[in-house]
Design goal:
single chain; about 180 residues; FAS1 domain; 2 domains; 7-stranded mixed β-sheet; 9 helices; 7 strands
Length: about 180
């Protein structure tokens, strides 16, 4: 009986240690080389980097007029982030044209950002629109469709497929397609 109790104690101790020592504990932040922190301690740019599926958006932010630095700043910001799969919905020729025109690229990327606000999905669901950093309004709506794939929060025509990723300087909502303003001529 005593051996069973000791084995249970050892098992509980092992489980407790495993919950503290996880693979993430050993992961390094790719931007600093130091220990990786949680998203709430990282800015928006580093949170997108660590998630690893935002290469196209990060490439655009890095090459546009100071957008990368702005989203590393104090904030707060609400960002509608299109992952690589979402960018894939735009044909490659149109992507190339957009990424070769820094002014239009900056316009598109700043349209996906709401400055001076950390708006979670609950707050956004109660609003009709928000003003983007680019200056135009992003229309918000909630679809209560019976089809779970269509139900939820929308920013313009983009479906929010993952919401409320908290960062040190704002909040990210992952959308299924890039938000596109009316582009300046």
């Amino acid at each position: 009986m005593r051996r069973i109790i000791e084995n249970k104690k050892s098992l509980l101790l092992a489980i407790a240690l495993l919950s503290v020592i996880s693979p993430a504990s050993f992961a390094n932040d790719p931007t600093t080389g130091g220990k990786m922190s949680t998203a709430e301690k990282q800015d928006i740019i580093n949170t997108l980097r660590v998630r690893g599926r935002f290469h196209k958006m990060l490439e655009g932010l890095n090459s546009s007029f100071d957008m990368d630095n702005k989203l590393k700043g104090k904030g707060p910001f609400t960002v509608f982030a299109a992952d690589d799969k979402a960018w894939g919905k735009i044909n490659q020729a149109d992507q190339d044209t957009l990424f070769n025109n820094k002014k239009k690229l900056t316009q598109v990327l700043s349209y996906e950002v709401v400055p001076d606000a950390r708006l979670d999905s609950k707050a956004l669901s109660a609003m009709a629109s928000v003003k983007s950093m680019e200056g135009h309004e992003i229309k918000l709506s909630v679809n209560s469709d019976k089809d779970a794939k269509k139900a939820g929060l929308y920013a313009d025509r983009a479906h929010v497929k993952e919401a409320d990723i908290r960062c040190s300087n704002g909040i990210i909502h992952i959308v299924d397609q890039p938000l596109m303003p009316q582009l300046a001529q």
